[in-house]
Amino acid sequence: MSLPELKDVRAFYRERAPYWDMFMERELINKVRNKEAERMLLSFRDLPQNSIYVDIGIGTAEHQRRIEKLLGNRLGKRYIGVDIADTMLQKALNKYPDDTMILANARSILPLRSALADGLIVQHVLSLIPDEVLQWSIIEMRRVMKKGGILSGCVYVPSDPFSKSDFPRNYPQYREKKLADSERSLNQDRSKLEYKTLFDKAGFGVEDMHHITWDAVQITAIAI
Ligand SMILES: C[S@@+](CC[C@H](N)C(=O)[O-])C[C@H]1O[C@@H](n2cnc3c(N)ncnc32)[C@H](O)[C@@H]1O
């Protein structure tokens, strides 16, 4: 499946930044996002309080805020956000002025030193990275992580009729969301096995692939 040029993805998110948080509050999306945040908290449960988190494709830091609300405080002691869309990143910076925000491209070399992160968040971003560079991109994420660090990220996979997700399958709003996703040209064709193989090859051990909905999976992987 071909994906749009980086400039088109950037333009898409640049334009949506003013409305992004409002969009995430819509009934069904809000419900799904809460499930993602809860799962992410489970992924990171064993990381110490003084951990450093890198968030690749942080967007407006909307899900960081969500996690913070669920937990009552932030996950670690230091955060670094990376995104290609300056308007999204500005919104994240408005929420968290003490965090480091870096305008950079996850399809290329990350401007971060090696073995920096205890936790790496990559929520709804891998599906926007083309096949040709995805392996490289995951290797880069592994590079910036400490051994034993944890990655948590949500990806789209082809619908799994056997998934135990309680997400309502015929909900009209969900179909609407799927259309919006295809407009964004999210790659929804990669199987769980393909993602697992990419992670294995990059030096991760995949610990969990949990269905948030029947076609969205939260991956938890340990840097080995
Ligand atoms: C679907 S949004 C998710 C935002 C955030 N992770 C969340 O869950 O709220 C995808 C984000 O990834 C960013 N993005 C897409 N491709 C990227 C790339 N190659 N490098 C860095 N950021 C990218 C977009 O600008 C956008 O902010």
Question: Which terms summarize this structure?
Answer:
globular; Rossmann fold; 224 residues
Helical content class: 25-40%
Task: Provide the β-strand percentage band.
Answer: 15-25%
| Topology as a string of helices (H) and strands (E) | HHHEHEHEEHEHHEE
Q: Which runs of at least 5 residues are low in confidence (pLDDT < 50)?
A: none
Q: What hetero molecules are in the model?
A: S-adenosylmethionine
Indicate the CATH class: Alpha Beta
Please state how the strands of the largest beta sheet are arranged side by side. Answer: 3-2-1-4-5-7-6
The N- and C-terminal alpha carbons lie at a distance of 31 Å
* Backbone structural class: alpha/beta
Determine the CATH superfamily: Vaccinia Virus protein VP39
Average pLDDT works out at: 90
- Give the count of structural domains: 1
Shape: globular
What fold name goes in the CATH topology slot?
A: Rossmann fold
CATH architecture: 3-Layer(aba) Sandwich
Please give the largest β-sheet: 7 strands, mixed
Radius of gyration: 16 Å
Q: Count the strands?
A: 7
| Count of DSSP H/I helices | 8
Outline the structure in words.
The chain has eight helices and seven strands, in the order αααβαβαββαβααββ. With 224 residues, the chain is an alpha/beta fold. It has one domain: 3-Layer(aba) Sandwich (Rossmann fold), CATH 3.40.50.150. A seven-stranded mixed beta sheet has the order 3-2-1-4-5-7-6, sandwiched between helices. S-adenosylmethionine is lined by residues 6, 9, 13, 57-59, 62-63, 82-85, 88, 105-107, 123-125, 128-129.
